[in-house]
Amino acid sequence: MKRAMLVVMFVLAVAGLMMAQNWSSPVDVLGAHGNNGRGCAGCHQPHSGAFGSGQKGAADTGSYALWGQDASPLYGATIAFGDDGSFTEVLPTGIASGSEEVGGILLCLSCHDGNVTAKNMMFNQSYEQRIGLLTNSAYGSQPIPTLLGNDGSAAGNYTNDHPVGINATIRSGNGLTWTGTTFTVTAGSPYAQFIANYGYPALAPGKWSNPWGINPSGKPYVLCTTCHNQHVMTVYTASAASPIAGNTTGYYATYFFINGPYNPNINNVTNTNAPSTAQFCRQCHFGEANEANNTNNITTVFQ
């Protein structure tokens, strides 16, 4: 009888981990991108682009996403990301082309490079940390910077930032296949098992747009918007296009605008489960995933 009860309790516990979550945000989901009260117009100026937000705007004459920030210091700039600058990205010379590099990198850096926002709306500290949402004591006591080119290290330093751009390509394998236009997953493969245990929100083909770029060689590459959803800071919503642990509905905790379940406040995950923070990274870094190492029964703790 005791053994049967233990089995039932274990099954119920696992089922609880796999059930759709019902996370609710403690703050407005736009979070830091509320832009000190400017709201959506802090990025998307309804009239006159960057001119309409009081920026110089002369080089921002394109109409991409009604962009309302002045990105002019970055047009055509060469930025060396990660690993001693091994991943070089040459930014577009304007926003009119509407390429993946514009919407997925340049426009993000027009704020997060610090060329204007350091003086008009950004504290250069993680919003979650600043308002007390980041409660995990494993984080240090110093402010977590949000300006990549002004983070307290060498001026303009990007070598300590995750690579993005046409040279930061995404590898496939283990059941994840790049077709030349999209990602597909082979049923029964190690990657399919990973999706069953977590999902692949950063790589799943989107309903409205895709979270990756395609370089001139036809290979997929990482954008800022591969890892981040700039419009929702605190909640990830599962869908048929991007199921989470097999669930096509449900709301999952996330932080830092991460484009998937990512909860750094859970610090008591046992070694028989995996934290969502590690699982998110394993979507691309699959060689470090449990499923790539013949370990298939490690489910994800989301919240």
Characterize the structure shown.
The protein is an alpha+beta fold. It has two domains: 23-161, no CATH class; 169-303, no CATH class. 19% of the residues lie in helices and 11% in strands. The protein has helices at residues 2-18, 100-112, 117-120, 127-130, 190-197, 224-227, 276-282, and strands at residues 78-81, 87-90, 176-178, 183-185, 212-214, 220-222, 235-237, 251-253, 273-275, 299-301. The strands form five sheets. A two-stranded antiparallel ribbon has the order 1-2. A hairpin with a 5-residue loop joins strand 5 (212-214) and strand 6 (220-222). The chain is globular, with a radius of gyration of 20 Å. The two termini are 32 Å apart. Mean pLDDT is 89; it is low at 4-16.
Rg estimate, integer Å: 20 Å
The helix tally amounts to: 7
**Distance between the terminal alpha carbons, to the nearest Å?**
32 Å
Mean pLDDT: 89
The topology string of helices and strands comes to: HEEHHHEEHEEHEEEHE
Count of domains: 2
pLDDT < 50 runs, ≥5 residues: 4-16
Main beta-sheet annotation: 2 strands, antiparallel
Shape: globular
Classification by helices and strands: alpha+beta
Helix fraction? 10-25%
The portion of residues forming beta strands comes to 5-15%
Order the strands across the largest sheet as they lie in space. Answer: 1-2
Strand tally is 10
Topology:
Blueprint: H1 2-18, E1 78-81, E2 87-90, H2 100-112, H3 117-120, H4 127-130, E3 176-178, E4 183-185, H5 190-197, E5 212-214, E6 220-222, H6 224-227, E7 235-237, E8 251-253, E9 273-275, H7 276-282, E10 299-301
Parallel strand pairs: 9-10
Antiparallel strand pairs: 1-2, 3-4, 5-6, 7-8
